[in-house]
Design a protein that fits this description.
Helix content: 25-40%
Shape: globular
Low-confidence stretches: 1-49, 691-695, 748-752
Largest sheet: 7 strands, parallel
Distance between the termini: 55 Å
Strand order of the largest sheet: 12-13-11-14-15-10-16
Number of strands: 22
Length: 752
């Protein structure tokens, strides 16, 4: 039997073998007669002598060539090694297929069936085009449907009598006769007249790859198989003692098994990446990642830092700024920071903590230590409204100690900005708060000793280093209210020590959360009015500033008009959004903070940093459109006083399965760490962390969430290897491999 590729028609058909390089061109230079003979045969001279290596460009692989090499490059596949680390995303057991009569609704399966009928149908009401196919095996009939796939009819891909492999989730056909159906299944057509591909396509566990433009899964299977046939030598860069201690498979064997598993391999272990081969490759990827992080960490600690002093007078200055008695967790974190800044190396610390746990006051304590030692502090925040909030609260906290605090924001007149920067350069400003404006070249500190960064995940790695360079080697404290498991935090921020505030201040009120449908809108408005009449304040959060013709979502402008004129004409309703000028935003927030405004209609500009203890109600419009982390941050704006607080999640008419999971999670817990774990589970690590923004490499094999146990083991081994290398020669060889192969692929030690 032969499998015909369908995703990319004509792939691999009639394509001549590509030209290959030779290790030494002179050694293989033929005579003119030889060239003529070779051209006549259409065969490259070097083919018989050329040996594939891991660093061979993919265009020289048989069946690839320059055109397909460009397609592979779009997925960062440039070399043989890159190709081999592009692993299957799932596996099919084609030793036997599911019978149609044994298919279960809601379960994914592979079937081998014969096509009965196939054609394009158009629904009467919506005029929706559906390609409908009926197929059968000896046990029953199944239907396969594709939406907006006219090409299947135009290309006449399916014909009656064909045998086809289909894979997908099978469900009961609601419009059929009780038969099962599968929507948009993956498929491969079987040609029974040929048997050249039997060993790769049938009678075995078959790897399935994500299709790449110009390369179907089937074609990738064949290319990888031919590479593994030709590739005889694969060096193993993992240290020998680690291979032995961890009982890891040799690299060559692991790669072979990862692509073409042995028949006895359990499909369940393959699906969960728990085979010895896959675990070996996962460990390898994590190990090199963690070595890169350990080297960054070592380099960051190799520079001389500012050694602050603590004295009874400084400790008294810290006590004066505290607005409340600190929690046990805050005291622990402050001690960790004090220990850091009193050493002659720069502090590089990440402070994690849930919304409202009191991270900011701990950061301001660190600022007080810096200023009492005669140094300046830079406070970088992601949004202007948050910068303004921090400015007002910081001035209030520091009032007893008389520290000079300034705010650098957009909209300042040239003379005002110049005057502010002159005072900063002369050391007259002790703390400067601002957004990305702090990174501008003309912002120069006289004696920068501490860098504070709020909401670290909003900034890139290079921005952090850019600000740090303004002071040589200042101490650095970055904060995030997006809690992540400690092991993952140590990987994401490999050059930072991690502190966690895992305790909320006492007397915080619980927040009750409820999902509200459109039919319950009036009831929600009445509840908001009742709370305001009891003396509380409330937020109404909208996803947009203005109405959009393309997206049917409630906007701040229209919601503000409707609420202020029709729903709450007797209440003081105000609005706030990011497009307002700085002074307008400042005035709106001041009115709400002082209690003049009872209901504030806003976009997500109030997501972080807004602290109004009297606000106890929040209604979030189209809550299904927000991410979990954002919903948690928004909800964190209430529940800051002693009154019981309420969060109403108003959902639209259509809620996806993923959005439903987010809303359900918000109902079940207010714990930021549990919410972060669910968010990781739903979105996956890459999107959750913002890989490019955070500076974390895109992993090819490993998964930070799924493989957390292997990550922890690899991290311990990597730290131990960097601290105690077996020999200088071996370590030098290892570093050469890290810098040539892994540095190019992952950028592990590019920063720091």
């Amino acid at each position: 039997m032969k499998i015909i590729p369908l995703r990319q028609r004509g792939a691999g058909v009639g394509c001549p073998e590509p030209e290959r390089p030779t290790p030494n061109a002179d050694a293989f230079r033929p005579s003119p007669e030889g060239i003529f003979t070779t051209l006549c045969r259409g065969v490259s001279v070097a083919h018989n002598s050329f040996m594939l290596e891991l660093q061979t460009p993919v265009k020289f692989i048989k069946g690839v060539g320059p055109r397909r090499a460009e397609d592979l490059a779009s997925k960062n596949i440039f070399t043989v090694e890159d190709l081999l680390y592009n692993l299957p995303y799932r596996y099919e057991d084609r030793t036997h297929f599911q019978k149609v009569k044994h298919l279960q609704p809601g379960v994914r399966a592979s079937i081998l069936v014969q096509v009965l009928t196939a054609g394009l149908m158009i629904t009467r009401k919506s005029r929706l085009r559906i390609f409908d196919l009926a197929a059968r095996d000896e046990s029953g009939i199944v239907r396969c449907k594709w939406f907006h796939s006219e090409y299947l009819a135009q290309k006449k891909i399916f014909k009656a009598g064909q045998k086809v492999i289909f894979y997908g989730k099978f469900e009961v056909d609601p419009y059929g006769t009780g038969n099962l159906q599968v929507i948009n299944p993956e498929f491969e057509i079987v040609d029974e007249e040929a048997s050249a591909a039997d060993s790769l396509e049938m009678g075995r566990i078959v790897p399935v790859y994500e299709s790449i433009k110009g390369c179907s899964s089937r074609l990738l299977r064949r290319i990888v198989h031919s590479v593994l046939e030709e590739l005889k030598e694969v060096t193993d860069a993992l240290p020998v003692e680690i291979l032995s201690r961890r009982g890891l498979m040799p690299r060559r064997e692991a790669i072979q098994e990862a692509h073409f598993p042995s028949p006895e391999t359990a499909l369940d272990e393959l699906s969960h990446f728990r085979t010895r081969a896959l675990q070996r490759l996962i460990f390898e990827e994590f190990f090199f990642l963690e070595v890169g992080m350990a080297l960054k960490r070592r380099k960051a600690r190799s520079f001389p830092g500012i050694q602050f002093q603590t004295s009874p007078a400084i400790r008294e200055a810290i006590k004066r700024i505290l607005p409340f008695h600190p929690t046990t967790a805050q005291k622990r974190v402050l001690k960790e920071m004090v220990d850091d800044v009193c050493r002659p190396i720069p502090m590089n610390r990440l402070l994690q903590g849930d919304v409202g746990c009191g991270k900011t006051i701990v950061a301001l304590e660190a600022g007080a230590i810096a200023m009492e030692n005669g140094y300046q502090t830079a406070f970088l925040v992601p949004t202007e409204i948050l910068a303004e909030q921090h400015y007002f609260s910081t001035r209030r906290v520091y009032a007893k100690n008389g520290y000079s605090v300034a705010l650098l924001k957009s909209g300042l007149k040239k003379t005002e900005r110049r005057g502010l920067l002159d005072r900063l350069a002369q050391g007259q400003i002790q703390m400067l708060i601002g957004t990305h404006a702090l990174l501008e070249p003309d912002v120069q500190f006289q004696k920068l000793g501490l860098v504070l960064i709020d909401e670290q995940h909003r900034f890139g790695v290079m921005q952090r280093y850019q600000l740090m360079k303004k002071g040589g080697t200042p101490h650095t404290l970055v904060m995030t209210a997006t809690p992540i498991p400690r092991t993952l935090a140590m990987t994401l921020y490999g050059d930072l020590d991690v502190s966690v505030i895992d305790e909320l201040p006492p007397n915080r009120s619980p927040i009750l959360t409820r999902v509200v449908s459109e039919e319950e809108r009036n009831s929600a408005y009445r509840f908001l009015r009742d709370q305001v009449k009891l003396g509380q304040q409330g937020y109404v959060v909208c996803p947009l500033v203005e109405e959009s013709e393309k997206v049917d979502l409630r906007a701040v402008s229209k919601t503000f008009e409707h609420l202020s004129h029709s729903v709450f004409p007797d209440l003081k309703v105000d609005w706030l959004h990011g497009r307002m000028k700085s002074l307008e935003k400042e005035a709106a927030m001041q009115r709400f903070t002082s209690g003049q405004t009872q209901v504030l209609v806003s976009t997500t500009v109030i997501e972080v940093g807004v602290d109004v203890t009297n606000a106890s109600v929040m209604l979030i419009e189209h809550a299904e459109r927000f991410g979990l982390a954002q919903l948690h941050q928004l909800r964190g704006r209430i529940g800051r006083g002693s009154a019981r607080s309420y969060c109403l999640l108003m959902k639209g008419e259509k809620v996806s399965e993923e959005a439903g999971q987010r809303l359900q999670c918000m109902l079940e817990t207010t714990d930021g760490f549990k919410i972060a774990e669910k968010d990781l589970e739903i979105r996956g690590p890459g999107e959750f962390f913002g890989t490019k923004q955070a500076g974390l490499p895109s992993l090819k094999v490993a998964n930070l969430l799924r493989d957390a146990d292997i990550l922890e083991t690899a991290r311990r081994e990597a730290v131990n290897y960097v601290d105690h290398p077996p020999s200088e020669e071996e370590f030098r060889s290892f570093m050469t491999h890290l810098k040539t192969s892994w540095q190019r692929r992952y950028g592990l030690v590019a920063v720091g």
